[in-house]
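#structure-requests
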Amino acid sequence: MPTLVRRVIPSPLSAVALGIAALIALPLLYVGHSALSVKTAVWERLWTTRIPELLFNTLSLAIGVGLFTFLLGVSIAWLVTRYQFWGCGFWKWAFILPLAIPSYVLAYVYTFLLDTGGPVEQVWQSMAGPDSRIFSPYSFSGALVVLTLNTFPFVYLLARAALQHLNVSFEEAARATGTSQWRIIFHVSLPLLRPALAAGLFLVILYVVSDFGAVSLLRFQTFTYAVYQQITGRFDYSAASALSLLLVVFALIFLIGERWFRRRSRFYQTTGRVRRSVPVPCRFAQTTAITLYFSLIFCGAFALPTFLLAHWTIAAWGNGQISAEFFEYAWNSILLSGSAATLALVIGTPLAYLAWRRPTMLNLFCIQGAYTGYVLPGPVAALALLIIFSQTIPFLYGTILVLIIAYLIHFLPAGLQPIESTFQQITPNFEEAAKSLGVSGLQSFWRITLPLVRGGFLVAWILMFIQSMKELPATLLLRPVGFDTLAVRIWLEASEELYQLAAPPALLIIIMTVPVVFLLSWKNWQVT
């Protein structure tokens, strides 16, 4: 085939990749088209009633959670890397465990702890008097506490990894000039950590902006919760599309801002000797203070919620409240998550392979298009698929196929990252050598490349499986009638404050997620 024709007509594999990218990007394009088609009267009504409140609540919650996760994550990372004390090895991996608890599970636990007459208020009244009150969980403060405890490990992991590779020669040079320790921290150490801290904070903020489970159970009005209410309560798809567009714009701004800030913060040392920090042994008083601080955070973020869930599960089992339906919900979750993770590997492999072996403009455009799922929060993707399937393919609407497609769109980017990075670590020379011996391209991939990248494929599958297992908003909106998953049962029972009924599925999700969290974090904390 002439060279000009080959450039114009894509290969069959590239055509498949283009179709996959178009499918993934379709909901985002549809939401944008629907929102821009909304009548002016609807926009005016939203701007005068809902948008100012939602804008203030969403931004204030994101900024507040970002600030407190920064304080917790950096302080914990600093203490475990710069000081040597009893139990330090335990705390290094213990603060990864909160990542195993979905935000809606932590939210429903804290509605019990912080509610009027709850355990926390009883303890507070025993110290401050019978008429004293604490803040309600159904408020900004409640959402701030829950999301901070749920997301600070993002900042902790990135800050700890950066501190482990920080050159302490800069700090020693500042100390030699007589600079105090606090000035060294704020003017030398933290500026050198900017890339890692910025990445962690933007990840936290993006998570908070797109979170649905926690804010819905805490009844705190943000854009995600408002989109869900417009769909299920008022059946106002026009208003939901308008709010979805604003939510997508927020996500895009944060993603673009993170990329820009990361580029502006790049630096590296070209001369001189790099020295790593040596942990300073702590005295007994210091060890006690650090242990108390760590214990308070760990109990609030993981130990206490897990203990309560185990206690409620045992009580539910003893009362005979765990019926055969519970195992049906578990099977539904496993079926959906396994199907979505497997299908994601099938459709993600050609995207990552072409970006690795044939990095043309078309192939790179396809894989970037597949990453658009990052900017689609769960309710937004569900809204787009709900309208598309109900209006164009009504016989498929209300089936698990629509739900699996929603999982693919939302979580494929999480699986593409390990697949793509694994491909990039393999030299193309292996395939070229096989082709020179007469082996076809498909056989070369199957017998040479695939065995080399199967570790990355396994990580991608597990990651997408667990993410799908915990997914809530799209499942609530798109599941077939009578088809419930573990996440849905947690949300439904917790909404009615039936704590014992919500505990078994919540505990099962945590038990399944903890090994995955360790697997994905192994390389990070094993280096210490």
